[in-house]
Amino acid sequence: MAHWGYMTKNGPSTWGKDFPIANGERQSPIDIVTSAAEYDSDVQGSSPLSTNYTPESEVKLVNNGHSIMCQITKKGVLTGGPLGKDEYRLEQFHLHWGAEDGRGSEHTVDGKMYASEVRYSYVNTLHLVHWNATKYSSFADAVQKPDGLAVLGIFITPGVACNQFKVISDNCANTSDYWTYLGSLTTPPLFESVTWIVFKEPVEYSKEQLSALRNLVDSDDNPMQDNNRPPAPLKQRKVKKTFT
Fold this sequence. Notes:
By secondary structure, the chain is mainly β. Helices cover 7% and strands 27% of the residues. It is found in: Secreted, Extracellular space, Extracellular matrix.
């Protein structure tokens, strides 16, 4: 894969040269315009969004040059909501963050990195990546399929640290209020294979955790900061929501 990053010479504005799909019809992230998001009671389908994650016995965080990532070894399952009856297996989680508080999230809300109706400033995004285990045999098999992946996008704000495997529990995130749309991976190869589920309410990370992330070094030997792709055009897509 071509070398890519977040600098001027290899950042998101250049990705289309090596990855033409960067200008595709369902790229992510997007700006979520709250007034245009359509409430749809059918988004929940026959059952509400549900997770069943097994805690890892030993969590190994890896610096892949673009983010900090955790490969999942235990079975974790996401079902329901816009995913219908298919079972999506948790593959990995990673984060995107800014050099300072007030920026760093990938999806934006009404053109800003915070939502006007809540008091939080979104400075990071946690992405939990799943693959469709009902239809496909592995992540590699699913990653390029239109219905192959599902990603939970969770905004992060400074505060009290929250265990990564409890981010969808009642005390860390509200899983019933979310936006959903069809999109893509937000990093190369940018495959348009993701059903995005972006939670409205953020979770909290401690300032110490955020500081540790900002002190990492990226693949260009620079501080790993502002590793977020700007919003892509929505084009003909619709964003749906589960709340009024």
